[in-house]
From TrEMBL:
Keywords: Signal. This is ABC transporter substrate-binding protein. Residues 1-28 form the signal peptide. The keyword Cell membrane does not apply. It comes from Streptomyces boluensis. PANTHER family: ABC TRANSPORTER SUBSTRATE-BINDING PROTEIN (PTHR30024:SF45), ALIPHATIC SULFONATES-BINDING PROTEIN-RELATED (PTHR30024). It comes from the Bacteria. Residues 82-272 form the SsuA/THI5-like domain.
Amino acid sequence: MKRTPVGLVAALALLATLATGCGGDASAGDGDDTVTVTVGYQSKTINTVTAGTLLRSLGAFERELKAQGERSGVRYEVKWQDYATGAPITAQMAAGKVDIGSMGDFPLLLNAARGQQLDRPTRLVSVTGYNLRGGLNTVVTAPNSKLRTLADLRGKKVSTSVGSAADGTLVRALERAGVDGVDKLNQQPAVGASALQAGSADALSQFVAWPGLLAFQGKAKALYDGAELNLPTFHGVTVRDEFAEQRPEVVEAFLRAQITATEHLRSHPVAAAEKVAKATGLPPEVVYLYNGAHGIATFDPTLKPRLVAALKKDVPVLRSAGLVQDVDVDGFVDDRYVKRAHGAAYPKALAAQPPQPRGEVWREGADRTAGFDSPNALLRYVAAHRDTVRAAYVPDAATGTLWFADRAVWVAHGNALRAFVTPAAAQRYVAKHPGARTVSYASALERAA
């Protein structure tokens, strides 16, 4: 695969500029009794919402700090800073301008490496959203593209954000498929989305929520489901070690607030999706695809061993791209604060597993979705209520990745109907099952009805 040293140099230059171009001290307040806490988050990266957008809208962190201040006599002020990716958050943390940040697994490793390099270490203290198979990252193409498999990307231009989790998915997927000769473009997600629409990029590899958004808008279709890698991917919360040592009560307050936001999202998934959509401008239907009751992301603050193990496997990918030399993952992961925030409930929470994939239908005016255990049952329901269906979601028959039912690739096999995120996955099933064939969504609805 073609490397992009120019893009790498530009990315590092941007990081250095951001790190040196900011003024002020994030942990110094306006007065002797005021502690200012600066939180860097990514509003559009919606599987970080329990440490960002949703957490902020609920006011849970501020309430925790107010209660803490009433006990200690210290006044706290929270400043929220929104970014498009994890790189500028890391730059601000390295400069001491952001105290707490949330980002994906690959950016977390860059965050750790940067802190270790500057002798200003950071710590991974919790997880926001994760997918044990890697389904949070997707490669998409234009709706009318003739590209069908990863092999078709040879000699093509693929936009991604170098050093991101989506970049890691692209690198791994191409290597596993034995595909080289890809021209990788290092672009921010919004720039890459525009490039795809303009035709200056043949495909786009990005993280949540860009693939789902573009598919929902009819501006892209899925080419590769990251869950085919069967490698966990997640987003997490990182803090400056110096700040955590000075203000452990703030870190624990943040994590208690994150737990509150997580419980709210689980208990009220539709309302949470609406709240996040209002704050970000994203369609609620897209937010729910990832953050819903059976969405692509599972929200759980605990630092599960399987996710930590996956983080260690990510290091060689970044090292081969020349983005890091090495990362002390064990020294980076620090579960002390989340354990204290959870209290006696931590072991049970740590052992919890994601819910089983299930189809859902969201109807107009409903404050909850209807769930279905089979694609046939879901389609029958949609056919009977098609005038009031806001969105229908169906899990991929092979990976379990939830996708929009009207954007999925459908296969009829006897009386059974199966959905797949990508044409390649559907064709693999058809090739192995005589009598199976792909059908349109309209045909699938008719068959089910």
